[in-house]
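User: Can you predict the 3D structure of Homoserine O-succinyltransferase? Sequence below.
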Amino acid sequence: MPIKIPDKLPATDILRGENIFVMSEARASSQEIRPLKVLLLNLMPKKIETETQFLRLLSNSPLQVDVELLRIDNRPTKNTPTEHLDTFYRQFEMVKDRNFDGLIVTGAPLGLVQFEDVLYWEEIQTIMNWAKEHVTSTLFVCWAAQAGLKLLYDLPKRTRKEKLSGVYWHRTHDCHNPILRGFDDSFLAPHSRYADFSPEYLAEHTDLDILATSNQAGVYLAATKDKRNVFVTGHPEYDVDTLHNEYVRDVGEGMEPNVPVNYYPDNNPDNPPIASWRSHGHLLFANWLNYCVYQQTPYDLEHFSEANFTKDE
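Assistant: Sure. Here are the predicted structure tokens for Homoserine O-succinyltransferase:
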């Protein structure tokens, strides 16, 4: 698909090298169509790596998508050059008066931090409340899913005793839900989190459609009935070596982590890992863009209104 991103963004050359159609801003402006406007709130420390992962998944659709990158605050980070942030990222004040077709909120390395101790918790609340009136559909990923459940359903933070890390089998529920269209009955997806999402707990305390679960990892995919909020507790965007890099990091810090489940051949970290979730990740994002964003959003974003949305297709 033609994904429109700034020409000098590091992801541009990476994606073009993968034969992904990255459209220049000049070429996009000549097309007689309205692209989908998607905002990516990147909470991960290594922003260049994370933005590339998500942009890759957003490329698997025939729709033209115009992606803007959003940062949570203006604090400097040791993992991303300040020049990159200043060049490619927006502050919330720059976008708050606009409407967007979609918003993606990434994970964050805050699994053991209480919500009230998160430095930017107030900013997260502000953006999520803003999204209710300015965004057609929001996709919450990993830590953001837990934050979204707290803000939308007042669910307390639930922390596992041990970190969940690995690639787990999941089964689908409600095969006629459009978010699951084309899914196999079972599929693999990576997890890397301390949060706990049991199907029983979410079923008891929310009205969410629970769409995919794992015996080991709990709820993986859930959504509101109007598809305006979609929760993904894992990391379909991960590169093949992301879990490996996290494992090596934790070993180096003396944390004695468990070897990621079902990730290395023969469960041996000396063996190069194999990606077994790419097809699922691309399909999930294509379905979100099509059924939760494109088929729900108004053509004219200036006339964004709750009346635009229906609970059924």
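The two ends are 23 Å apart (CA to CA). The mean pLDDT is 90.
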